[in-house]
Amino acid sequence: SQGGGGGMRARAAAALVCALCCALARGSEDIVVGCGGFVKSDVEINYSLIEIKLYTKHGTLKYQTDCAPNNGYFMIPLYDKGDFILKIEPPLGWSFEPTSVDIHVDGINDICTKGGDINFVFTGFSVNGKVLSKGQALGPAGVQVVLRNAGSDINIQATITQPGGKFAFFKVLPGEYEIFASHPTWMLKESNTVVRVTSSNAYAASPLIVAGYNVSGSVRSDGEPMKGVMFLLFSSSVTKEDVVGCSISPVDGFQPRDESLSYLCNVVSKEDGSFTFLSLPSGKYTVIPFYRGERITFDVAPSRLDFLVEHDSLQIEPVFHVMGFSVTGRVLNGPEGEGVADATVTLNNQIKVKTKADGSFRLENITTGTYTIHARKEHLFFDTITVKIAPNTPQLANIIATGFSVCGQISVTRFPDTVKQISKYKVTMMPQGKDKASLVTTETDPHGAFCFKAKSGTYNVQVIIPEAETRAGLALKPKMFPVTVTDRPVMDVTFSQFLASVSGKISCLDACGDLMMTLQSVSRQGEKRNLQLSGNMDSVAFTFENVLPGRYKVSIVHEDWCWKNKSLELEVMEEDVSGVEFRQTGYMLRCSLSHAITLEFYQDGNGPENVGVYNLSKGVNRFCLSKPGVYEVTPRSCHQFEHEYYTYDTSSPSILTLTAVRHHVLGTIVTDKLMDVTITIKSSIDSEPALVLGPLKSVQELRREQQLAEIETRRQEREKKGQEEEGTKPPVQEMVEELQGPFLYEFSYWARSGEKITVTPSSKELLFYPPYVETVVSG
């Protein structure tokens, strides 16, 4: 204001005088000049925040001062002549005109020497703000932002956002304003806001927001643009609602492959091959091309592309190319069969694909031509097929299995002695009910495994074992394995070694106790097995396990018992052998005899009745006792033994030895008269005294005495019965026959073995010839 100017000037003059006095004190050669002026503003500002600085023309700071807080006055003293720059340095965002003044101090004509004012005029504050990408902390560069007075359509100022989305307006005086943002291609979600400027820099009330950015790309085929290719947009972070300008309807015939991505929308390429997603918010996206003709899906490369939208439009690289077309097919296990999973389908021996669980496969980037297709899967067989593939044959004919493996194993657990290991056996497979011409043969591997290739049908599988191994006892079961092949491999054809069990029982008369059995091969020498058995019952079961086929002799080893059969022969063919029986018939008694004798047996507890009489010969005799227990054995013969009788216990068998100690010597004397006859027997053994026998009775006399005794007995019987009734005739008188010569006198003597005896007969009247007899009794 003009009124206040004179007062200011007076104060300035006083200050200058003071300054000059100081300067004169330094020396009259220095010229002292004061450069002063005002910081002026039509609106209320805080002057104390503003600094005025003096620099040399080379940029060195010479002096700095603050403004007077009440009116903005400043004063800078100068001690030198020369060129200087006076600058105003307000708070950031405050605008002044001018911002700097060049001064040439010559002490004569310059503004400072002449006492003129250098003034800086305030032109306004700054207004700051941001344009952000939706949902992000930063925003794009290049958005046009304009400032208008509230309610006005006239732009006061216009600016462009910087990287990160920041913008600022300067030289804005206090007041109410509106801010508008716009962009030729981007859509804005929040395009305007307000700001109120008072006595300092101001900030927009709220950020402006870009809804999304345009993303474009192009698609070609053989260098030509392709129209009508669909591009499907997916994202795991962005929602459908945030995307503008593309079709959200689902796409027919498209199979998504990645479940983690959610489908947003699609666009279609135009005549020039370009496609554009009009507005995509910042975020990660995946685009998948999909091009389907009338009946066929073509392959587009890349088949999937991930891209990131930040804070700008995006041109998708690389360019998409329509390559070839896709064909699908299926691999089946039969004409109406199921799909074959994990089969490898090879195209021209180069391209390989695996089938899915339903047997389907897909060949991509195919161009029109003739191809050979081969399917492979373990244990399935397919014919190689040749097909012409073109866009009008998107679906190949089914590839059908023509054969299946029939696999099996030969398992041998116990090799016969002469067979060291499993050899390579021949295995045959023949269709059931067909002639032998269609028989196929294969060989096992060293581990006994084998495989055939077979079409559907019923077959018989058989193993051919060499003659030598059959003789050695190697047999397999089953003899023949029936197989039905339908629509899958048969992997369980198993031939296992046939090992029989030979079983039966042993029947004993009493508790069986410990027994041993043997199984001996008849045809294979040296193949013998023992089996120890034990039982306290009267029967014991036995089983020989793992017996090779062949002829065998089964024996029971128990020498002290008698058996119905001690051994049996049997043949093991294709079945287990059972029902083999050994029956004990008695207890073996072995006697060692010095002479042929008769033995009588009595058994304890069975009373005195005779159990058995056996005529035995000299030497060792064997015979059977039918019951267990203790027996009394009495020898009967013309010999005397050590004991009158012997005992034998079946539970502790031993050899019964009977040795004769004396022998019966018989003699006869013949006379023609009944006379007194005596015999003297003299022994060579000194301890034996001479034996005198007699007088002897003749055989005839003895017989007569016997007859008389019998007559007397009969008479007594008749008397007893009272048969002599009156009127009956007396019985005829029984007579004894007269004695007639020659008369025989018999005598006997028990002689020891080797004893020499002299026998001398004597009589009162008779003489004998020979007068005596000498004999040695050998026994």
From TrEMBL:
It is found in: Endoplasmic reticulum membrane. Residues 405-495 form the NOMO fifth transthyretin-like domain. Residues 221-321 form the NOMO third transthyretin-like domain. The keyword Transmembrane helix applies. GO terms for cellular component: endoplasmic reticulum membrane; multi-pass translocon complex. Keywords: Endoplasmic reticulum, Glycoprotein, Membrane, Signal, Transmembrane, Transmembrane helix. Residues 713-728 have a biased composition (Basic and acidic residues). Residues 36-120 form the NOMO-like N-terminal beta-sandwich domain. Residues 589-662 form the NOMO seventh transthyretin-like domain. It holds the Pfam family NOMO1-like_1st. One of its GO terms (biological process) is multi-pass transmembrane protein insertion into ER membrane. It is a single-pass type I membrane protein. Its main location: endoplasmic reticulum. Residues 713-734 are annotated as: Disordered. Residues 1-27 form the signal peptide. InterPro entries: Carb-bd-like_fold, NOMO-like_N, NOMO1-3_2nd, NOMO_3rd, NOMO_5th, NOMO_6th, NOMO_7th, SDr/BOS_complex. Coiled coil: none annotated. Residues 496-569 form the NOMO sixth transthyretin-like domain. Residues 122-210 form the NOMO second beta-sandwich domain. PANTHER family: BOS COMPLEX SUBUNIT NOMO1-RELATED, CARBOXYPEPTIDASE REGULATORY REGION-CONTAINING. This is NOMO3 protein. The gene is Nomo3.
